[in-house]
TrEMBL record:
Protein's name in the database: FIST C-terminal domain-containing protein
InterPro entries tied to this protein: FIST_C (IPR019494), FIST_domain_N (IPR013702)
Domain of life: Bacteria
Residues covered by the FIST domain: 23-215
Domain FIST C-domain: residue ranges: 216-354
One Pfam family from the record: FIST
Organism of origin: Winogradskyella alexanderae
Amino acid sequence: MKVEQLSLTDASWHDVVPNIELEASLLLLFISPTFKGKEELIKSLRKKFSNATIMGCSTAGEISDVKVNDNTVSLTLVQLEKTTHNLEMVKVNSMDESFSAGITLAKKLQAKDLQHVMVFSDGLNVNGADLVSGLKSVLPNTSITGGLAGDSGNFSETFIVANDIITDKSIVGIGFYGSELRVGFSSKGGWDSFGIDRLVTKSNKNVLYELDGLPALELYKSFLGDNAKNLPSSGLLFPLSMRINDCDTPVVRTILGVNEKDQSLTFAGNIPEGSYVRLMKANIDRLIDGAEDSAKDACKASNIDTQLAILISCVGRRFVLKQLVEEEVEAVKEIVGVNTKITGFYSYGEIAPFGKYSPCELHNQTMTITTLSEC
C-alpha cells in the first residue's frame, strides 16, 4: 500500500491535482461544505484517476496530518497493491428506512473474502444507530467503521461522495477484500459523567420525550443553566451517557435538536425506553487522553506498522477543545508514528466497535480511529 496525503484549498487545487504522481486506486475526500469548487474538483479527479474509486463526505472540520482545517478538502490517495475493493451507495428517502438501508448496503458488499467495511452516511437524514443495526444483521462477523457527515456545526445540509456523485439522503460504503489487508480500530471518548442515572420512560428511536416520567427537555435545561438558551448547539457540550443493561459499556449520545412544543430532545442515535442515561461534561485533558488511548488500541488491534490512519472525531469534541483541537490529533500521531499518513474529519456520529472484540456501535463524542495496512 502506498499513501499520499494532501490538503487542498479553492485557490490551490488546480495547481496541485495535475502534479500528483501516485497511481491511486482509492481516493478519500473529506470536504468542507463551504469548499466552492467541489464539483469541479471531483470531475478533475475522475478524469485524472479514471480507474480509481472516490469516496467521501462533508465535514465539520477536515483532518490532514496533524492539522485541523476549515474550507478545505482533505484528499488521501491510496494505491492498494494486494487488496481489492468495491463501492456501493444506497439512497434513503426517510429516516425510517435507515435499518433497511443498512441491510441493503451490507448485502451488496457481502462476499466470502470480505475483510472490512467502511461507511459514510448523510449526517442529518439517516438514523445512525439503525444503520449500524442493519449492517450488523447481515455482517455480524465483519469489522465496520465510518461516520456521519457534518456541515461545520450548522446542522443544515450534509452530503456524501460516491465516485462522481455528490448527494444527501444517502449512504456510501466500501468493502475491502483479501487476506493481506490488516485493519485496526478503536473508539474512545474521555468525557466525565455526573449526577444520577435517569430512566428513559418515553422515547421513539432517537427522540427522547421523558426521563423518570418528567419532560426530557425541561429536565435537561435544568442541568444546563445559562447554557440552555444556546440549545441545540450547547447540547454538544453536555451529551448523555446511555446504557441498556448493567453489563453494557455505556455509549454516548449527542443532541441534534430540541422541540419546545412536545419538550423532546432528538439525538444522533437511538435512546430506547427502559435504558438509563446520565449527563456528561468535558474534561479537556481526558478528551486528549481518550484520543491517545484510541490510537493505542487501534494500533494494537492491527498488529502491524500502520500505513494509513483515518480519524473520525465528533464535532462536539471540537467545540470543547477549541484552539486545542489539534492536540488530540497530535496525540494520535505520537502513537501511530511519523511514517503513518493521517486523514479524517469531524463528524455528527462515529461508527466503530469500542475495540477488537466488541460489536460495532454508533458513537457520539468519541475519537474513532481506523488503521489500514497491507502485509
